[in-house]
């Protein structure tokens, strides 16, 4: 299990393990092993390692490479995440989010000065000119499983593969509560009103820095009207006759399965 801890962040060292990235891909060794000892790769001057925490007592760093080192192959983050247990999923998600933050905040957004990372007990970059601080960005999103009697609403986005359905989801707007965002997204994407919105669970989603906050909701009124340009199709599906749904390692798949279990027991 990953221990984020409160200790001062160490510098990279030979006894640590490393998660290596190339562009948006994870570099893996045999058997899709993504935790790499220091002796298995050659560090270079452009490699900036970011501390992630401790994994079973070992320091973990994530770093990006401009080319693929010898002995490694590239694997899509999404594909690799689907192969993990919950603890490994959270480690990979955190590593990718921290590396994205490091890559995207090299310069101050206020005055343009090169940022400096401080090795403190938190991840922060400080502008040496205007003292503006940057922390890793986290974008809250809501994702909702909606019930109508013994059916749940599933939708397919415009770019999703044919036959693959999921829950309604979307980003939280400034000034909204999570519950308001859930009701608005449902209204905008499928044209119905819901009630009894209640929290279910949450999960980081590293594409690139979302925190998915899951809810259950009950149908109240309206007819399903897919939003043009966003939702290709949407409908009510009986819980014993569902189309293809997301992998159960994802919060979307977990919400659907959990909601079905709740419906069966009530």
UniProtKB/TrEMBL annotation:
One of its GO terms (biological process) is NADP+ catabolic process. Pfam families: NUDIX, Zn_ribbon_NUD. Its EC number is 3.6.1.22. It catalyses: a 5'-end NAD(+)-phospho-ribonucleoside in mRNA + H2O = a 5'-end phospho-adenosine-phospho-ribonucleoside in mRNA + beta-nicotinamide D-ribonucleotide + 2 H(+). It is an enzyme of class 3 (hydrolase). Residues 136-259 form the Nudix hydrolase domain. Keywords: Hydrolase, Magnesium, Metal-binding, NAD. InterPro entries: NAD-cap_RNA_hydrolase_NudC (IPR050241), NudC-like_C (IPR049734), Nudix_hydrolase (IPR020476), NUDIX_hydrolase-like_dom_sf (IPR015797), NUDIX_hydrolase_CS (IPR020084), NUDIX_hydrolase_dom (IPR000086), Znr_NADH_PPase (IPR015376). One of its GO terms (cellular component) is cytosol. Its cofactor is Zn(2+); Mg(2+). PROSITE patterns: NUDIX, NUDIX_BOX. One of its GO terms (molecular function) is metal ion binding. It comes from the Bacteria. Belongs to the Nudix hydrolase family. NudC subfamily. This is NAD(+) diphosphatase. It comes from Marinomonas ushuaiensis DSM 15871.
């Amino acid at each position: 299990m990953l221990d984020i801890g409160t200790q001062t962040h160490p510098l990279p060292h030979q006894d640590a393990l490393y998660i290596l990235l190339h562009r948006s891909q994870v570099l893996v060794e045999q058997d899709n092993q993504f935790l790499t000892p220091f002796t298995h790769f050659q560090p270079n001057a452009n490699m900036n390692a970011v501390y992630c925490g401790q994994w079973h007592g070992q320091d973990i760093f994530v770093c990006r490479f401009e080319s693929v080192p010898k002995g490694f192959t590239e694997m899509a983050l999404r594909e690799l995440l689907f192969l993990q247990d919950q603890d490994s999923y959270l480690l990979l998600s955190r590593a990718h989010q921290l590396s994205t933050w490091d890559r995207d905040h090299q310069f101050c957004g206020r005055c343009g000065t090169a940022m400096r990372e401080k090795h403190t007990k938190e991840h922060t970059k400080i502008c040496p000119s205007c003292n503006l601080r940057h922390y890793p960005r986290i974008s809250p999103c809501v994702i909702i499983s909606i019930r109508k009697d013994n059916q749940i609403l599933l939708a397919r986005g415009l770019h999703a593969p044919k036959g693959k359905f999921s829950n309604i989801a979307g980003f939280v707007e400034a000034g909204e509560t999570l519950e308001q965002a859930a009701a608005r997204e449902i209204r905008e994407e499928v044209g119905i009103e819901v009630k009894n919105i209640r929290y279910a669970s949450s999960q980081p989603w590293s594409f690139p820095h979302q925190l998915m906050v899951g809810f259950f909701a009950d149908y109240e009124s309206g007819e399903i009207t897919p939003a043009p340009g966003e939702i290709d199709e949407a409908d009510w599906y009986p819980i014993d006759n569902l189309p293809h749904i997301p992998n159960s390692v994802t919060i979307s798949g977990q919400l659907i399965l959990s909601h079905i279990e709740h419906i069966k027991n009530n």
